[in-house]
Design a protein that fits this description.
The chain is mainly α and 84 residues long. It is built from two helices and two strands; from the N terminus they run ββαα. It has helices at 18-51, 58-79; strands at 9-11, 14-16.
Length: 84
């Protein structure tokens, strides 16, 4: 039985396995469509949360502020994965 050997490439300390490379490629396919879709979904979630803040109890408001900050960070992070 022949076992498929997994390979990886290391670039400046980042390990790129075939799975990671495939995921990055799928993000960048079709003129970065997947990345754009993810960013739009996150933006929609942030807008939805912002539009519904009046229904939030004051105890949860701080948690929501952190959630919006985290979602914004993730959205910007995906922008950096775009194909130039």
């Amino acid at each position: 039985m022949c076992e498929k050997m997994k390979t990886h490439i290391e670039v400046e300390g980042v390990i790129l396995t075939p799975e990671v490379i495939a995921r990055l490629k799928s993000f960048q396919d079709n003129n970065n469509d997947t990345i754009q879709s993810i960013r739009e979904t996150i933006a929609d979630a942030v807008c939805f949360i912002g539009q519904n803040l009046d229904t939030v109890h004051s105890d949860d408001f701080t948690k929501i502020q952190y959630l919006i900050t985290d979602l914004s960070f993730i959205r910007n992070y995906f922008d950096e994965l775009r194909k130039p």
